[in-house]
Amino acid sequence: MHTCLWREGLHNISCCNRHLRFRPMGGGNGQKSKMARERAQEKTKAAKGSQLESNKKAMSIQCKVCMQTFMCTTTEVKCREHAESKHPKSDLYQCFPHLKP
Ligand SMILES: [Zn+2]
Questions:
Q1: Where is this region: Disordered (predicted)?
Q2: Which of 25, 26, 23, 1 is nearest to 13 (CA)?
Q3: Cα 29 to middle of ligand 1, angstroms
Q4: Domain count of the chain?
Q5: Which of 7, 14, 36, 95 could serve as a FRET partner for 43 with CA atoms 20 to 30 Å apart?
């Protein structure tokens, strides 16, 4: 069975004659798809960057005693555990003032 690659934008001279008229001049199509690929890569890079940024933002709970950061989703129980194991001499609210009622 003959499979024409034109639909995938991979059409070349060795592909079926029926689609030769769609062949772009000077291989412009290849250039275009390469640019599109690069643009897509840039997009992914940007997405990754913003992901990192939001990860950083998510580390919004900080122990004021040892400056360790925690995800903003960290529960009070976990904070308490940290305070009790790392700073048994310090008050929980000294480590995490935001837990103060
Ligand atoms: Zn700490």
A1: 26-53
A2: 23
A3: 58
A4: 2
A5: 7
pLDDT digits (tens, 9 = 90+) for 25-57: 555 566 778 888 888 888 777 777 777 666 666
User: Ligand 1 centre from 68 Cα, in Å?
Assistant: 6
Q: 87 alpha carbon to ligand 1 midpoint, in Å?
A: 6
CA distance 14 to 28: 17
Residues 9 and 45 grouped into a single domain: yes
Q: What is the DSSP string of 3-32?
A: ---GGGT---TTS-GGGGGGPPGGGHHHHH
State the distance from the centre of ligand 1 to the C-alpha of 50, rounded, in angstroms: 28
Task: Specify whether 43 is located in the same domain as 28.
Answer: yes
Rounded to the nearest angstrom, the distance between the alpha carbon of 85 and the centre of ligand 1 is: 9
d(CA 55, CA 49): 10
